[in-house]
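Repro:
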Amino acid sequence: MEQANVKSASASAVKKKNEPKRGRIDMPMTIIILVLLVFGITMMFSAGHAQSYVDNDGDSFAYTVKQVTAAGIGLAGMIFLCCIDYKFLRHEFKWFGGRIKFTLAGLFLVITLILNFLCIFGVEAEAGQKRWLKVPLFNTFQPSDFLKVGLIIYLSYYIHKHTHDIRRFSVGIGKPALLFLVVAVIMGGIQSHLSGLLIMTAICAVILFVGGINMKPVIPVAVLAAVAIIVVISLSGFDYFGDRVAYMDPLSDPSYKSYQNYQSALAIGSGGIWGKGFGNSTQKYHYLPFAVNDFVFSILCEEFGLVGGLTVILLFVLFVMRGFVIASNAFDRFGCLLATGITFHIGLQALLNIGVCLCCIPNTGISMPFFSYGGTALMIQLWEMGLLLSVSRYAHLK
C-alpha cells in the first residue's frame, strides 16, 4: 500500500513538473484579431447604414450599435477564455462516486446538437429554410454557429483521449462517422443549410487527418458519406441548392435568378484599383441585396478597390499562418487540434465568402468572419479567439 502511494505521488510530481508555465498571449495573433475586428465593424457600418435606415425607422446606426454590443460581449468572453487554461474543456467530472462521468467538451456538443434540432420548430426563412431560433434580447440566433465550435472542441478532445488507438477503424472513423451522420441529418434535412454542412464536413476531415487516423479506409467511407449527403439534400428540396449552382454566373439571368451575383460583380468591378472612397459605395443603396451580410466584401472592394480587397485577404492569410504556428507549437495534442480547427474554420469561411462575392462559389449564405452583420456569429468567433489565445499561452512560442 505504501509503495502504491509513493508511486502515485511520484507520478503526480512528474506530471506537475511537465505541466507548462502559463506565459503571455501571442501578441502577433492578438493584433491581427483586433485589426480584423475594427476593420470589420467599420465596413459593416458603411455597407449597412442605408439598409439600417429602412429597417429601423430612420436609424442608420441601429445595426452598428447591435454589432458593437455583440463585439463588447465577445471581447469580454475572449479575455476571460484566454486568461484560463483551455485544458479545462477536457477535464473529466465524476458524479455519484464516478458512476456518471462527463467533460465540458461532450456536454457542449450535446447541447449544441439539441439546439440545432430544435430549429425544426424555429423561424422559417423566405426560401423555407429553418436555421434560426427566437431568444430574448437577441431576437433570433443561428445555433449552427455554436455547432461548428462544438465539433471542433469535441473532436479535439476525442482524438486526444484516444491517441493510442486512433488508427483503429472503429475509433478513428467509425464513431466520428456516426456523429457526422447525425450532424448531416440536422443540417441538411432540418435546416437545409448546405454551406454550414460543407464547412463542418471540412472541419471534421481536417481535425481527423491532423489527429492521425488511418487514411486507407477513408475513400470508401467518404463515398458513402457523399451519397448520404446527396440523399439528405434531395429529401430537403434539391431545387434550392440546384438553383444556386445553375445561376452562379452573374450573366446567366441578371434580372432575376443571378441578380445578386450580377450586382456583386458590378460593385467589385466599379471599385477599380483604389476604390471610390470610404462611404461612397452606390451598390449598398438597395441595389445589392444582403450587402451588410454575405456581400460586405463586395462593398469593401467598391469603396477601397483592389488594394483594400487584397489587404483583407492578406490579413486572413496572416491569421491562418499564425494560427497554424500556434497549433504546431501547442503543449498537447488537444491544444494542437483545437488551434488547428479554430484557425481552419475562420480561414475556410473567409475563403468561401470571398469566393461567393467573386462569383466563384454558389451563393448559399456564407458570412465573412468579423465583417458580416450578425451578433451571435461575431460573439462566437471572438470566443473562439479566446480559446486560440489560451492555447498560445501554453505553447512553446518564440
